[in-house]
Design brief:
Layout (H helix, E strand, L loop, with lengths): L3 E2 L2 H18 L5 E7 L3 H17 L2 E7 L5 H12 L6 E4 L9 H7 L11 H8 L9 H12 L8 E5 L6 H9 L6 E5 L6 H5 L4 E4 L17 E4 L3 E4 L7 E4 L12 E2 L6 H20 L1
Parallel strand pairs: 1-11, 2-3, 2-4, 5-6, 5-7, 7-8, 8-11
Antiparallel strand pairs: 9-10
Helix pairs in contact: 1-9, 2-9, 6-7, 6-9
The protein binds NADPH dihydro-nicotinamide-adenine-dinucleotide phosphate.
The site of NADPH dihydro-nicotinamide-adenine-dinucleotide phosphate has 26 residues, from helix 9.
Length: 287
């Protein structure tokens, strides 16, 4: 039997209804600044989607586009200026940055109270301490929200996260293992001896690896819940544009899993919803 689709769009819509109430109750209009450097087309699509989502909810957004040859010093100076601007509550710098800019060093400069991406060491450090009430990275917290919304019980379950990045995999593992979620977590990465065998043990499998359709049906325990974080462009001559979006999970997994999040329409909308939630939290806390 085919898996039930975990509908990220519907979950994001439900979450946004609650966010609208929080915006109404907030003493100030939340204000997000987004900086994008260079002309990577996918990054521009992500930023446009974030700005549109802000408009939909009545969050003010300021969108700054810088050319790919901007110097690190200029970017640092802009971040410092925005850190000190009391009318701005959230600040994010769209990844990736050009090679001549040290992305981690720039992230470290963002005021943690405005770090709506949740990537600052102070915010990730709180998560390591088990404090899940701070600025949490949007994609993994969106996955948690989606699991909660669809009634997936995590306590005592075996969760496997494929990927250990600072942005998705590692914070995902911490959130699944945190008190209250209480899953028992395994992290799979590129040096794992037998990734397939590890995945087969999962009641809940989160794929955040960036390899199109790597997780095959025979990697998945029958009845498992599978969350596909991956967003990959693969060539597809049958499409007019010559490519299609693919997740990290092979479509055949639908025959084995009980619940499966689609790509697109799964984790993507939840990532944006959690960014909006973090922006509102930042505004509430700064006022
Ligand atoms: P990274 O490239 O930063 O991390 C990938 C991780 O996968 C690494 O930890 C790497 O291991 C691991 N890995 C790579 N190859 C293998 C392999 N063969 N077997 C096991 N593990 C492997 O990617 P991100 O975490 O940033 O993103 C992951 C995916 O999620 C991408 O497709 C990205 O586009 C997507 N994404 C989607 C978002 C959304 O909103 N839906 C948001 C952010 C990302 P190692 O550490 O050993 O190198």
């Amino acid at each position: 039997m085919a898996a039930v689709h975990l509908d990220g769009k519907a979950c994001a819509k439900a979450l946004e209804a609650g966010l609208l109430e929080r915006i109404k109750a907030c003493s100030v209009q939340p204000h997000l600044a987004v900086i994008i450097v260079g002309d990577d087309p996918a990054s521009h699509v992500y930023v446009t989607n974030k700005v549109k989502a802000c408009q939909r909810l009545g969050i003010k957004s300021t969108h700054v586009e810088l050319s790919s040859d901007v110097s690190e010093a200029e970017l640092i100076s802009l971040v410092e200026q925005m850190n000190n601007d009391n009318t701005l509550h959230g600040l994010l710098i769209q990844s990736p940055l050009p090679d001549h800019i040290d992305e981690e060093a720039i992230t470290d400069l963002i005021n943690p109270a405005k770090d709506v991406d949740g990537f600052h060491p102070a915010n990730l450090g709180r998560l390591v301490q088990g404090r899940t009430d701070g600025m949490l990275p949007c994609t993994p917290s969106g996955v948690m929200e989606m699991l909660r919304w669809s009634g997936v019980e995590l306590s005592g379950k075996k969760a496997v996260v494929v990927g250990r990045s600072r942005i998705v995999g590692m914070p995902q593992a911490l959130l699944l293992a945190a008190k209250g979620a209480d899953a028992t977590v395994t992290i799979v990465h590129s040096r794992t001896a037998d990734a397939k065998m590890e995945c087969l043990t999962a009641d809940v499998l989160v794929a955040a690896v960036g390899r199109p359709e790597m997780i095959k049906a025979d990697w998945v325990k029958p009845g498992a819940v599978v969350i596909d974080v991956g967003i990959n462009r693969v060539d597809d001559p049958t499409r007019e544009r010559g490519w299609r979006l693919a997740g990290d999970v092979d479509p055949s997994v639908t025959e084995v899993a009980s619940l499966l999040s689609p790509v697109p329409g799964g984790v993507g909308p939840m990532t944006i919803a959690m960014l909006l939630a973090n922006t509102i939290t930042a505004a509430e806390r700064q006022h």
